[in-house]
Amino acid sequence: MTAPAATRRRAPGPDAPGSDEAGPDEAASGETGALARLHTELADWFAREARDLPWRAEDRTPWGVLVSEVMLQQTPVGRVLPVWREWMERWPSPADLAAEPAGEAVRAWGRLGYPRRALRLHAAAAVIAAEHGGTLPDTEEALRTLPGVGSYTAAAVAAFAFGRRATVVDTNIRRVHARLLGGEALPAPALTAAEQRRAAALLPQDTALSVAWNAAAMELGAVVCTARAPRCPACPVAAACAWRAAGEPPPTYTPRGQAWHGTDRQVRGAVMAVLRAAEHPVHRALFEPPVPGAPPWPSEGGAVTAALGRLHALGSGPDQLARAVAGLLADGLAVEDDGRLRLP
Ligand code: SF4
After folding, report:
1. 54-136 adopts what CATH topology?
2. CA-CA 20 to 30 A from 90: which of 7, 205, 250, 294?
3. How far apart are CA 45 and CA 48, in angstroms?
């Protein structure tokens, strides 16, 4: 089990939960009281229990952390791991990625979903290579100037790659804060200014502890304080949880599930799969519905044929197929030359 060096803290001292006496960790961090205990309890749990992930290893690079943060934003760890490893092997530095066409980043994105993230990473790599000497800038402010790097990603990279004190607020952290401190089953549907202020106020003053707190809250939300079924008996801070103390009130709204089957997103994904499989541009007509009476696409055969078979097995009408192609062209995920489509 490897936790970032900055997050490793020793086991809790004799200051039992409930005591107001500052323990050694609290003294070291200059903090006292219930919040300080929360900080150290969660950081100690993370040091013991954190999943062993390559972007947390001692030999991680800032570039590897940035790639992991972008990949993990909308995709679970299990699906990200093999793709992240392939990316790091093929493009160990931003300059390596920037030297290839953006379409290669999209192709190597595979089935992670939301492939515009691959384009944004490629654009960021190009700027890092051209304007920063190939090295990631190490402050939140400078990271935010990179294409596609927003507040969350900048804070996460500043904290986890450079050990800086930064307020990291992702979906998992929001849920932990909402339950632990707010007594609510779920955070608001979208990030509020009040949540951001609470997260900033909760951040330990001690820099190393702030990194640990961010990583630990994120991990707790991912593996214990999960959206559907929190495992409270396994939670290291259950005794301090406001949601449990309030009797576990239900959510005040029903989160919108992400529909997939039959959606434009599904069709876009299937068109992208054809383009990723193709070594040569694909005639646009192949993305139109098959002529009535024509034999169905074989589901086996070459990779492109198989991908076309899966696309047309969705049974999309001409409008939906046209929307999918137009959307990919508009987003820069596909380009058209002489009626043929390819990756950029
Ligand atoms: S006790 Fe349960 S709801 Fe509260 S923070 Fe822990 S896992 Fe989440």
Report:
1. Endonuclease III; domain 1 (1.10.340)
2. 7
3. 5
